[in-house]
Recover the amino acids of this structure.
């Protein structure tokens, strides 16, 4: 049977599975030796806030939630103070909190969620996607390189330095 993969806005009904997926991703970061997400963020309040603000999105396979992210339009104050230079200064979507469930980890779903975000952005007339990650998040750094994101510099977020990337689409 062919899988049906969809990208859609998260609803309150998704909150529990989203939090479970985020907990799995937090644990994967810890096992990989990354400091990212090891300080109580993200948490269930983050998930509920994302859903209420309508910025939470899920990737589903045959209607089962397998990945999560937040997509914000022009809304990351930390990005105004980049040590470096963005590729563009027009409208952009910011990607935060990308997480994939353990059952599909390593099977290309994080890459797929970025492809869906890029499609979603283009459909809404947004031609830039910006994202940041920890210097020690090897999995995300690999995905960003593979998908053609350009390293633009460093931003300060959540009390730490993050590598900042942009892709013009």
């Amino acid at each position: 049977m062919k899988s049906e993969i969809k990208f859609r806005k998260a609803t309150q009904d998704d909150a529990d599975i989203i939090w479970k997926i985020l907990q799995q991703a937090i644990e994967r970061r810890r096992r990989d030796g990354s400091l990212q997400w090891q300080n109580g963020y993200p948490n269930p309040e983050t998930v509920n806030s994302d859903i209420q603000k309508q910025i939470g999105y899920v990737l589903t396979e045959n209607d089962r939630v397998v990945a999560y992210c937040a997509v914000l339009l022009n809304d990351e104050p930390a990005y105004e103070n980049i040590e470096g230079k963005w590729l563009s200064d027009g409208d952009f979507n910011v990607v935060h909190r990308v997480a994939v469930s353990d059952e599909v980890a390593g099977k290309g779903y994080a890459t797929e969620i970025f492809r869906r975000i890029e499609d979603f952005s283009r459909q809404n007339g947004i031609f830039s996607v910006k994202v940041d990650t920890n210097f020690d998040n090897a999995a995300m750094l690999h995905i960003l390189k593979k998908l053609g994101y350009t390293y633009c510099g460093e931003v300060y977020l959540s009390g730490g330095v993050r590598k900042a990337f942009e892709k013009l689409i």
Observations:
- The chain has one domain: 5-168.
